[in-house]
Amino acid sequence: MKERLQQLFAKISALPGTKAFKRIDFGLAILVTLVALVIYAYTETSGRNAAGLRFIENIEARSLDARFNLRGRRPHDDNIVIVGLDERTLQRVGAFPIPRNAYAKMVDQLAKDRAKLIVFDANFPLPEKNSAIDALKRLEGEVQGQTSPAVLQKIRDIEASSDNDKIFAESISRAGNVVLGHIFLDRERAKSVEAQGVEEYAYILSAHAFPWMQKAGGGRDFDLIRAWEAATSKDQLEFNQLNASGVYSNLQILADGAKSFGFFNEIPDPDGTFRRTPLLIRYRHVDKSGNDFDQFYPSLDLEAVRHFENIKDQSIAAYMSENGIEKMELGSHTIFPDRDATLVINYVGPYLTFKQFSMVDVIEGKFAPGTFKDKLVVFGATAIAVGDLRTTPFHDADYMGVEIHANVIDNILHSGEPGRGFISRSYKEEMIDVFFILAFGAGLGYWFSRAKPLMSTFGVLAALGAFGLIVYFAFSHYGMWLSFVIPSGTLVANYATITSFRMIFEEREKRKVRKTFERYVSPGVIALIEKDPKKYFKTGGESKELTVMFSDIRSFTTISEGLTPDELVRLLNEYLGEMTDILFRRWGTLDKYIGDAIMGFWGSPFPQDDHALRACACALDMRARLQELNMKWEAEGRKQLAIGVGLNTGEVNVGNMGSSKRFAWTVMGDNVNLASRLEGITKEYHVQSVVSESTYRSAKDHYVFREIDRIKVKGKTLPVTIYELLDWGRNESLYTERIVRFSEALTAYRRQQWDEAIELFKKIKAKFPDDGPAETFIHRSHELMEAPPEPDWDGVYAMKTK
After folding, report:
1. Cα–Cα distance for residue pair 620/722, rounded to 1 Å
2. What is the pLDDT of residues 36-65, one digit of tens each?
């Protein structure tokens, strides 16, 4: 490719002046800009889970998290306080779920201190299990007709005084300012809820639906429900959550005394972080009489603000167009959510930013008089044992869901104040994003095509820094979410594309042969090239028996996810460097790195009659060196690695493969593919090294092997006997017992004597707990016992995966 571009450059250079060259530069800038605009338009119009581009969304979301962490705490409403069901409460009041008379005492204390509103981030769907009441009811039934009315009345009085649900309900009713929470359920979860309770609650709930759903504008008539379904249909999971079919309700005795109700469903982003909150959910319920309750219901936070500010129904409305929600009005507050009535929460700070009180302190009155006067009190679980943990942009390990509700309430109360309401991601922000994409694409692209590379480098760094400051300032002062990833990606891609293009065409010095080829082939190949260049500077190859090796790091994707890019590169470079040194010490040829995998072979270009022995020695050396590296990494607190190695000996095509422009000394053929499959098979049998029968025959007098199976690899019809490379031949006595026992178990397995085979393999596991093949055959024997093979089965196992 490079040479073709150089030929093109020669033709361009023949044109008068350098205008054509600069036109190509600017053309590349326009191309990068168009691609960026297409990607941006796709991510903005395809919902929050745009297929194929979720990684861009995740990075953008993480950049928003970084802005929160850079900003830290911001001013928040001191009238919002939290009462938490914390560890001290559990220790003093009782294990979760705590008795409901404790909730009653808390409500009484808060009402006594003149709290303006008490909001429960909790629901109470089932009666409290009370063994005392159960015993009294049994006693009442047994003595009925056998004792005096006075005794019966006394039993009933004690029973009533022990009914914690009734006590809690009376407390709620006396306070008159309690808002209870409930959870809406999708179709599947709704099936698990008792119909009777839902039926009773539906009638109560219908009186607390969102007051007014208005059609926006005066255009075409449309159906509100269909418009809502269309607005929430971009993601199936979100659709199910915002279009509920059931409700996890509150007991009727509690609901009757509550001031209102609101749902506390929250919808996490794909990465599990709670950045958004829904304000409306559509709930459809058809009762036994066929009455269809299909209405919109407010969130717990919306209801909290509504009753805290005493906003009347006629001052509450949501305006919906054919595309979804346009805006919502809540008294003096005007909110502009997404089409699906969700908003990005403007978190006031990390966990414990809002003032918290322990529930047990409230119950016992351990607070100064007037502490809760005129306050909006949000109650919820703050004990880690209860499990209401949430991941937020601040990534606190113990952020509790109740504080998310406090944040949302704060956002609604201060929705008209810059930087204090919800984070804005609207048409205005999108237009600013497009401006920066055009400026970084076409604008700076034109300058990059004319500036020197060093000046371009300084320019891109300065532009990135300035853009980062603008994005942060807009967020921290105005609550605007400007896209950072795509505009900055456009800038970097533009710079890289144009600078690379110019370097390819402007830097045409020829490099020396050795410096060029040492990056792609082993030092041995370079030495041969220098001795006989004509032989190696042409394509082609020869058939020759070689030993091919593949090695790969186990669970590398999982390991890499837990490391920063710098840590990952450092770990991989150290590992590959050590393993490559071993391969070269054993006179192997490094074919290539395939990600974290190493491909090598023996017998070419150096003629080696003992290529199988050298390959086995390399595999054992790699194992020993990796053990040393893991000890070192463990001491340094770094990740440890495990590898699998596959070896196969056979005839392959070896030589200079490629085109006349670029080639490499490599091997091809079925035996190469088999070596790769054997490396993958190490995962199936939980061993480190697997070799083919041909390698085993060539090296069995020098190393310790054991036969582990006869298999058909995926895509092949002929069976292959595979062996585990255990150790050097001098250590054979250390493995004799294991090999003999395994052979006996394998014989029983191949005879389809499953019970005997399982017993023998279990004994091996008991004696040698780290024996991976024994574990594999135990599971496989159970499978074959349930689905037996044909009677004439030859013991060959067909691999299901590569």
Report:
1. 17
2. 999 998 888 776 555 557 788 889 999 999
